[in-house]
Design a protein that fits this description.
Length: 199
């Protein structure tokens, strides 16, 4: 279906609404920008350098509605934003849209300084699904304690048989959280953890 032609004036007006400071009006503008399609990307991109983190957050929220490659790439870039809420918003949007090209960038923030961002990244990888499995296995085997916990929880959601060897090894993890998620995942995958747990 062809997107309706949108005037420059209309898009500029929507951007003004987006950063007006009223959450209700900003949300309505974000949703309308999503309907307007990828023409909106060029109007949102300047907001990504705005010193006001709230403006960048609303830009991320809007980009998440657009469903086009240019918007996806900008969202991936926002995973490095200095503001944790902006990073979390970008991670959520990438997971909601199941953007497979975001798997590696999302994995790189599993150990984010903000536990909220880390959780959003793990949830996004779980939503993306099977394309995330190889990098999640790697993080479960080789990551920090937080990365291993996030990876094991995401693998519990995805339940892919490729993760079974790494999950079995994780039964002996130093972290009780990792061990818990690994046990649950193996149970749901039909693997007998009592027989397989290392001595």
């Amino acid at each position: 279906m062809t997107q309706p032609t949108v005037s420059d004036e209309e898009l500029q007006a929507l951007i003004r609404e987006l950063i007006c400071g009223d959450d209700g009006r900003a949300e309505a503008a974000a949703l309308t920008l999503g309907i307007r399609g990828c023409d909106a990307v060029a109007y949102l991109e300047p907001l990504l350098a705005d010193p006001t983190s709230d403006h960048r957050w609303w830009a991320a929220r809007s980009l998440g509605q657009l469903r086009c490659d240019a918007a996806d790439q900008l969202l991936i870039g926002l995973l490095n934003d200095p503001d944790a809420d902006v990073r979390a918003c970008a991670a959520f949007a990438l997971g909601e849209a199941q953007i497979e090209s975001a798997v590696l960038p999302l994995a790189q923030v599993l150990d984010d300084s903000s536990v909220y961002v880390s959780a959003m990244a793990a949830d996004a990888l779980a939503r993306i699904g099977t394309a995330s499995v190889p990098i999640l296995i790697d993080r479960l085997r080789n990551g920090t304690s937080l990365e291993r916990a996030r990876a094991s929880k995401a693998l519990l959601t995805i339940l892919d048989s490729r993760s079974i060897p790494a999950l079995i090894a994780a039964l002996d993890d130093d972290s009780p959280v990792v061990e818990h998620y690994a046990t649950e995942a193996l149970t749901r995958l039909g693997v007998g953890t009592v027989l397989l747990k290392p001595n």
